[in-house]
Amino acid sequence: MRPVRVLGISGSLRAGSYNRALLRAAAELAPSGIELTELDLSPIPFYDGDVEAAGDPEVVADLRLAVREAEALLLATPEYNRGTSGVLKNALDWLSRPALASVLRWKPVGIVGASTGRGGTRRAQQQVRDALHFPGARVLDDPEVAIPLAWEQFDADGRLTDLETRAALESVLGGLADLARTPAATQAA
Fold first, then answer.
1. What pLDDT was estimated at residue 176?
2. How much is the pLDDT for 168?
3. Range 41-51 burial, b when 16+ CB lie within 10 A, else e
């Protein structure tokens, strides 16, 4: 059986981001049946309906193509002011278009996140789930990885060291692979 192609997308652009480190940990922990690559959102312009009407910018077309070619997405969201990042929300706005024909439709999506706050990223993850509902993505709801006080779970080199969190991340990857291998029609039944 060939590996499930998972596209990892971080909602943080910061080089030392815990969410980018979380995606690196996911790539490291991915079992042999999963191939995870990361996509950088930094070149994506703000969503603008006028720009969309004139034709997608090349970087947006590339983003859509990468999502279309992936069999599943793993989104890593920070939590800013009790919500997801503008960077990730902006990407989801581009990807949700055109309505009812989005590349997100039926796409299996896992959501994880790390935050320096005590609440982890539960609120941000809920906002991402809500944003994925309309375009019809298939979101993995359990298990959940919403890391609070992230500096306690990553070492100075950005490696995820907390064993429970590593195990939970492995479970997310396994669940995401299972969801990707399950036809959408079976899920809808």
1. 96
2. 97
3. beebeebeeee
| Alpha-carbon span 20 to 22, nearest angstrom | 5
| Residue (of 78, 94, 171) closest to 127 by Cα position | 78
Residues of the chain with pLDDT under 70: 185-189
Please check whether residue 8 is in contact with residue 145, taking contact to mean a CB–CB distance below 8 angstroms: no
The pLDDT score that the predictor gives to residue 142 is 85
SS3 177: helix
Give the DSSP letter string of 21-72: HHHHHHHHH--TTEEEEEE--TTPPPP-HHHHHH---HHHHHHHHHHHH-SE
Peptide bond into 43 cis (omega under 30): no
Contact 44, 60 (CB under 8 A): yes
* Number of Cβ within a 10 Å radius of residue 28: 12
The model carries a pTM of 0.95
Where does residue 58 rank: exposed (0-12), middle (13-18), buried (19+ CB within 10 A)? exposed
Q: Burial level of 36, CB count in 10 A (0-12/13-18/19+)?
A: buried
The backbone torsions φ and ψ at residue 90, rounded to the nearest 5 degrees and listed phi first, read -60, -45
* pLDDT on residue 189: 41
Task: Tell me yes or no: is domain 4-182 CATH 3.40.50.360.
Answer: yes
The residue written with tokens 């599943």 in the block is 72
